[in-house]
Amino acid sequence: MKPQVVTFLIKCPDQKGLVAKITSFFFEKGFNILSCQQYVNAIENTYFMRVRLNADGTNISKETLEASFLELATPLKFDWSVNYSDKKQNIAIMVSHTSHNLYDLLERSKEGRLDCNVSMIISNHDKLRPIAEMFKIPFYHLPVTKETKQEQEAQVAQLLDVNEVDLVIMARYMQILSADFINRYPEKIINIHHSFLPAFQGANPYKKAYERGVKLIGATAHYATVDLDEGPIIEQDVKPVTHESTPTTLKRIGADIEKLVLARAVKNHLNHQIIVSGNRAIVFPEAGE
Amino acid sequence: MKPQVVTFLIKCPDQKGLVAKITSFFFEKGFNILSCQQYVNAIENTYFMRVRLNADGTNISKETLEASFLELATPLKFDWSVNYSDKKQNIAIMVSHTSHNLYDLLERSKEGRLDCNVSMIISNHDKLRPIAEMFKIPFYHLPVTKETKQEQEAQVAQLLDVNEVDLVIMARYMQILSADFINRYPEKIINIHHSFLPAFQGANPYKKAYERGVKLIGATAHYATVDLDEGPIIEQDVKPVTHESTPTTLKRIGADIEKLVLARAVKNHLNHQIIVSGNRAIVFPEAGE
Amino acid sequence: MKPQVVTFLIKCPDQKGLVAKITSFFFEKGFNILSCQQYVNAIENTYFMRVRLNADGTNISKETLEASFLELATPLKFDWSVNYSDKKQNIAIMVSHTSHNLYDLLERSKEGRLDCNVSMIISNHDKLRPIAEMFKIPFYHLPVTKETKQEQEAQVAQLLDVNEVDLVIMARYMQILSADFINRYPEKIINIHHSFLPAFQGANPYKKAYERGVKLIGATAHYATVDLDEGPIIEQDVKPVTHESTPTTLKRIGADIEKLVLARAVKNHLNHQIIVSGNRAIVFPEAGE
Amino acid sequence: MKPQVVTFLIKCPDQKGLVAKITSFFFEKGFNILSCQQYVNAIENTYFMRVRLNADGTNISKETLEASFLELATPLKFDWSVNYSDKKQNIAIMVSHTSHNLYDLLERSKEGRLDCNVSMIISNHDKLRPIAEMFKIPFYHLPVTKETKQEQEAQVAQLLDVNEVDLVIMARYMQILSADFINRYPEKIINIHHSFLPAFQGANPYKKAYERGVKLIGATAHYATVDLDEGPIIEQDVKPVTHESTPTTLKRIGADIEKLVLARAVKNHLNHQIIVSGNRAIVFPEAGE
Fold it and tell me: Is B278's Cβ below 8 Å from some Cβ in C?
């Protein structure tokens, strides 16, 4: 294998000796363990591990590594995945009218602060095309109505599949995706919701926050699931506000939170820091990376 | 009037010239304006003001001041109140089993960081009596069942009224007060809810927070109203948590947030920084106080 | 005067009746007071006020207003300024190699979240020219060496003056400006320092933060003064970090803080929310704006 | 060994296979690994590990465990320690005039939120004795002058040693301890400094913070070292403040930060989450504990 970082994500029933068995496996194969993070959910008796390996000292091929690991994984009932740093991930960004998250993701990707290729921007409106052009990213304007929803989603899916998109980011795409579409990309769609979920689910969260008179507003990035705004939460943040804030100023203050929350969630996903378990996202912190 | 600070809280329909009229009134009466804070709600066309006056240079009596102010207030449709710093407020603390908020309020009051007399502690359990004894505060154990609720609340009300209690603090009092009781003390009961409202209303918020996998937990201090957990929010705060947090650790982390949030809300109330408008609490910041 | 918002900033010795006198003045001239914020520094016996007026109902000219106000201001020893919302301010952004603050300011200005014209970008390197071109902003590459510093600063000053620049933003411009240059633009140059000042003044703050093992890193926006990193602080923020952070990750985490801190400071300045007093910046919060 | 939690803290030169070797060791001895946290400092090529073991399934004695572990540790150059949950730690609290940290630590310890025995309170003043009496903790009033410093410290040391104190907490003890004293208790003395170090080292940090016009104030808990305010930082936090804050209000706002920061640092120490390396404290987060 060429010099690179290999990241394993593992979920399995908890049992004695797991760390020892897994780390011994990688040690024997000649890897240097860069970091080894684990989490035990004692309530559900489940074990989670993220291991990052340096492949510098090994000649093992990806195929052999994975075949060998499968022999360890099967009896221990691992649900696992492996990722190699020589594979750059492709992302697609879906937007409607709001530009702040789009700018932020494009800037981070262009400046190397998000390690990915932005394959395309898809929108149900043409409004944000100039931003795509500034950053030289293909822009697909696919309008949608109740009648054309199925057809439009098919077009989106084709674009994603043909371009081998690894992650879809709903950067304030103000359409509800169908269950069919969402189930096609499990844990591959990240949405940003402009409130501190589960508070203010659904539409107009800033207006609701004003009316409720909250003293903090927030944003939540989560994996899209069929139940709207109910998917596993990856990242949340809030900012203090006062009675002076109107729905308009809440929206403006919130925009900055949305940008940071979405960018961190996307980075965590691209960096293979997340394991989903039921409706909860285990998000390992960066390990000196 | 003897040297002291006088605080007016005013709410009225917005109109031209309000600041000028009000501040001229106090200037002419010989007061020095220590601070003058205002808030205009342009959506509801309402004006709010908090004025703090230094009474050092005036000989005017409280009665004359209030009678004169009434002449200004009536045509301008003021909803107003006035408070004098020579009147120390009496508070009652209601608790059940949980001690952290109680300790915190008692310590702050004892050390002069909350400007009030703690008149009594009322509990439906006897468990926290030793803390009351440590701090030498009268403790009333008034058990309550569904059947005796009306009677128990009558006992509580009598205690509050006889002792001229100005503010009731529900410091994790795990009983729902009746509408009759709550309506008897409008904007005079502060409750601490152990979540970031409106998320996780009702019972067991830390368990719900765990199950939803949120990345921040919080607490909310609000005025008690008939609709449970729906009263005007005075103060909120949150703290980041991770997937490692169990319901038990969330509870422990949350306890520290609850203490700070409740203490700040109580201080804001005692310091006459709050005007309630509908379901929103206008909370003026301290002005160099 | 045409319909617009007029903002007065006032600093003067504290004395009885100031609010009444000032607000009565504006009321009599026919203005509606949108907000009136004050701050009394009791230690230095100084009074500060920010008044925002709606000019809708007045026919008074700017000249007459200012002449009349001067009559009020002179005997009361006001240090004051007035700003009109029909005058859009011009800003110049100075950069070296680092792009994140530049992108952020350009995006906010383009999307109408910073109310100003970006007149130009000035850099001692040519590296960031493509960003200027993306956003169609004039870019001036003015290299500087110890020998050419005086001459280069003269070129910069000429550019600023010819283009009537109101505010200079040092968005990670890694050069120390001369005292002559700085004194030419008092309270007109905002710098972002990548640490929580006064911790880690000078060069390489992220490296120093790593070595000191701090658990929070931050950024500070301040007015540039002759004493480097000692100017009045406008805005600061921090973010928790752990022992896992290397100087490189601190730099990356810090970049997000720098962006928010600088953007907020610039908005506060453009919005006339700041009065400088000695080495302290009085920053009034937005008043429902 | 009786059922309990055993915690190992390990520091050593980084090398291949460490996780595998260490976790295999414990697995073979029959322990269940509750959590295994590691940190690699790539700059210094050093490896750190915290392992928590459940001793339920083992009959091994403490002596045998430690002797066996030494055989693993010696060739790999481990700097290590082991702690057993059946050993409750003794703490001593040193104070002068300020009570808020003292109350907080006593309350947490009394209510079981800090797992330790408070063996004594030592003060150079008699002022806080009533608090010690409320909580029924021995109080030693040991006044100190420049002349008696050596003698007083000897008395303190004797008290600590006779009572087998494991941790000394300087909870606003306003005396500088001698190098002799500090070196006697390496990584066994925690101090709270009332600023965000390294900003505002030395005396009167709130006054300095006011004068510098900072927009956040903070507190820092650190191990005491001979260089005052330079010891390894365990915990820090800050709170936003405005120009309205006077040195007095900063002090009051700061008190709440000091309490939380010191309590968290003490909990981290008592819970064996900290490894010191040079001037940096590696603070592992709780692992579902």
Answer: no
In chain A, whose CA is at the least distance from the CA of C103?
A: A107
D136: number of Cβ within 10 Å: 10
Residue B289 lies in a domain: no
Give the mutation candidate from A48, A211, A216 for the B interface (greatest B CB count, under 10 A): A216
Q: Are A32 and D40 a contacting pair at CB < 8 A?
A: no
* Structure confidence at residue D289 (pLDDT): 84
Cβ of B111 within 8 Å of Cβ of D134? The answer is no
pLDDT given for residue B228 in this prediction:
81
pLDDT of residue C159: 98
- Residue A66: band (very low, low, confident or very high) from pLDDT cuts 50, 70, 90: very high
Q: Which residue of B has its CA nearest to D287?
A: B244
Q: For residue range C105-148, list pLDDT tens digits in order.
A: 999 999 999 999 999 999 999 999 999 999 999 999 999 999 99
Q: ipTM of the assembly?
A: 0.94
What's the number of domains chain D is made of? 2
Q: Which helix (H) or strand (E) holds B140?
A: strand B139-141
**Are D177 and D195 in the same domain?**
yes
Enumerate the residues of chain D whose CB falls inside 8 A of the CB of residue A26: 20
Q: What share of chain A is helix, strand, coil (3-state, %, to 5)?
A: 30, 30, 40
D251 is a domain residue? yes
Exposed/middle/buried for residue C252 (C-beta within 10 Å: 0-12, 13-18, 19+): middle
Co-location of C139 and C99 in the same domain = yes
**pLDDT (0 to 100) of residue C3:** 82
Question: What CATH number is attached to the domain comprising A29?
Answer: 3.30.70.260
The amino acid present at C182, given as its one-letter code, is I
Q: Residue A117 burial by CB count (10 A; 0-12/13-18/19+): exposed, middle or buried?
A: middle
Tell me if residue B86 is catalytic. Answer: no
The pLDDT value given to residue B1: 77
Could you list the residue range(s) of the whole structural domain that residue D77 is in? 5-84
Chain B residues 216-275 within an 8 A CB cutoff of chain D? 242, 244-246, 249, 252, 255-256, 260, 263
- Domain assignment present for residue A289? The answer is no
Please answer whether residues B34 and B53 qualify as being in contact, where contact means their C-beta atoms are separated by less than 8 angstroms.
yes
Same domain, A68 and A103: no
Is D77 in the same domain as D140?
no
Q: What is the mean pLDDT of chain C?
A: 95
Of C19, C240, C287, the CB nearest to B36: C19
Give the pTM.
0.96
Q: Chain B closest CA to A112's CA: distance in Å?
A: 27
